[in-house]
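Continuing from the previous page...

OK, I double-checked the sequence for site-specific DNA-methyltransferase (adenine-specific) against my notes and this is the correct one:
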Amino acid sequence: MQDTSDVTRRLWSLCSVLRDEGVTYHEYLNELSYLLFLKLADELKIEQLIPRESRWQALRSAPPSEALATYEQTLVSLSTAKSQIVREIYADSSTQVRNSASLHKLISEIDSIDWYRAKQNGLGDVYEGLIEKNAQESRYGAGQYFTPRPVVDALVKVLKPTGGEAVYDPATGTAGFLVAAGLFARSMSSGDLRLVGNELVHDVQRMALMNLLLHELRAEIANVDTLSQPPMRPAVDVILTNPPFGLKGSLSAEQKKQLDFPTSNKQLAFIQHCYKSLAKNGRAAIVIPDNVLFESGVACSIRKVLLDKFRLHTVLSLPTGIFYATGIRTSVLFVSNDGESDGTWFYNLRNGGPTYGKRRQLTDRDLDDFVTAYGDDPNGRSPRQPSERFHYLTREEIAADGERLDKAEKFTNDSLPQPGNLLDLTHLLSSELETATSAVESLERILAAYGLSRPSTETPQVTSE
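Thanks. Re-ran it with the corrected sequence; updated structure tokens here:
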């Protein structure tokens, strides 16, 4: 049987068909989203939603010289289709392909895949594999929208979203958290969840809708700026989110109105939106950059709210090198709206383990001990035992140190660099350099397509006379 990873690799290899035309990885995934929806509509039992003249068969049957014109007309037709899901996926759609023969080749290659067998293993896994490939290859762009699946699955396992609950991701990205939550509830036979999200970037919202659809899940994904929206009403039961890192800029008057503590730091704005959207007895897991744990000013004020008006019961320190978009240190805040904090548990997954990157990727097994230590209670109230990685500080101890929460890393011999870890780090830095070089080359191809070139960065040679 054709494994989904084989299908993913084959689809991703087809990117080379379009690379010479200056089509970026992100644009290629968009093209695949448009084409795969048409190809798989019959498997998804939704082909009746597509006008007959816009279906896969019509596109596949077009001669090589007419494939591009047929495809462009198809995109226009589908963007105004009667079906809401079809309109959402194809709204403002356009193609970056300029060569009809190249497009025809791509269509033929997609058509030759045994999709019936791929469906037996999960069409959603194929598409999610493509999203991960995109993140790996373009970590300075689309990679910011992808959270590694082992992290997503671990957070879902401990929060245990249950049928009938509303699960919200205010920075939906490609819907990894919502898909995992929906699949978890399905596996537990607990009933359907209400899956809700916001995504600012329309192309990424499109990928989210496709990801959910191919996993046979339905969700409400709005193409809006979360920070301009009021808190969710009715408030939601579960929040799972990884807001974009490194975003700063002046907020509009409308955005400032929504915040307890106006700030140009959008990560801090997202955290405020989250706690204001959480229902009584609701629970949240929020991925944050580590500076949120120790900065003064607004960051400190927000930590104090989370500790005094909510129950910030757990902080998980994540390893470096696991996020495709950035090498920034990250942690996860676990917050429950069921009282104030008596103290906080800190789990250190960062030190004493391998260095993660392309050569050694994070797996579910790496997070198994954390899931066990967290306990069965989704609000973090299970009895816990301290360990080398897991320790507890009282509310008074945290207050005595300026409300700082960067306490997961205890100084032990395990936290000192070991030769093996240094070798892994060397491999990681080499991989980062290769990725950056690839990104520059992609940009140069795009510039060349417009008759432009990158300014020279060579340092003038100084000669002595």
